[in-house]
Amino acid sequence: MDVPLWLALLVVGYLGVKLIRPPWWLIAVILLGGFLLADSVLAPVVDGFIK
């Protein structure tokens, strides 16, 4: 079964919020931080670390 990445991330994010119940400000900080980090000079370093 082929599941699109956006759908898998949406399901995992929804379940994470429902089960763990993090504060909404923490979710916003993580999303905004990831968005800003992806377009920064540190992106190749993070990419190399993840791979």
UniProtKB/TrEMBL annotation:
<keyword id="KW-1133">Transmembrane helix</keyword>
<feature type="transmembrane region" description="Helical">
    <location>
        <begin position="24"/>
        <end position="46"/>
    </location>
</feature>
<keyword id="KW-0812">Transmembrane</keyword>
<keyword id="KW-0472">Membrane</keyword>
<protein>
    <recommendedName>
        <fullName>SpdC protein</fullName>
    </recommendedName>
</protein>
